[in-house]
Amino acid sequence: MSHVPNPDYSFAGAPAARAADLKAGGQIPLLGGAAVLTVLEAVHDTASGSTLLHLDPPASGPGPVQLPSTALVNVHRLQPEAEAEQDADEDTEDEEVTVTVALTVTEEVTYAFEAELELLASAVADPEALRDYLAENEDVWLDHLDPLTHCISVDERSLDDASLVLAV
């Protein structure tokens, strides 16, 4: 199904503009209006026919988003304050939307497993020497670690970064 824009570049009642027409201070709604990206800078390159958008918050990681200058982008038209407050009062239910998000997660996990290893006799002389040797020589035991069956606990998990991935 192809979407043909109206003369004012709107789709299904949502106002839109060509990427080449965006300017600093413009707003791009996401998630059905639940979030808004603000255009910090729009650099139009007529030679390549593209527009670089620096957005706040960044939409897909560090750096600008590059769009063809003719690409249509839904835009947010500011409402008078009284009208916006009335709309907010009417929208009491938070609606769910499906988006693509880039996540970076760090986990600290504990693995417990046994492995038959060929080691130097001096490395097994005492528990501290064994631990030190294995810590310095991961290649001796790492192939025996199966993260799917040996993980006994996730000790710590932190979300390091999350950003929306914009589809063009």
Your description of this structure?
This protein is of the alpha+beta class and 168 residues long. It is 14% helix and 34% strand. It contains 3 helices and 8 strands. A 4-stranded antiparallel beta sheet has the order 2-3-4-5, with no helix packed on it. Strands 1-6 form a two-stranded antiparallel sheet. The chain has a two-stranded antiparallel sheet with strand order 7-8. Strand 2 (27-30) and strand 3 form a beta hairpin.
In short:
14% of the residues lie in helices and 34% in strands. With 168 residues, the protein is α+β, with helices and mostly antiparallel strands. A hairpin with an 8-residue loop joins strand 4 and strand 5 (65-68).
The H-and-E topology, N to C, reads as EEEEEEHEHHE
What's the overall geometry? elongated
Number of helices: 3
Rg over CA atoms: 27 Å
Low-pLDDT runs of 5+ residues are 1-11, 78-84
Order of strands in the sheet with most strands: 2-3-4-5
Classify the helix fraction into a percent range.
10-25%
**Euclidean distance between termini CA atoms:** 17 Å
Average pLDDT, to the nearest integer? 74
What about the largest sheet? Answer: 4 strands, antiparallel
Q: Which class do the helix and strand fractions yield?
A: alpha+beta
Can you count the beta strands? 8
What kind of assembly state do the chains in view correspond to? single chain
Q: Estimate what percentage of residues fall within beta strands.
A: 25-35%
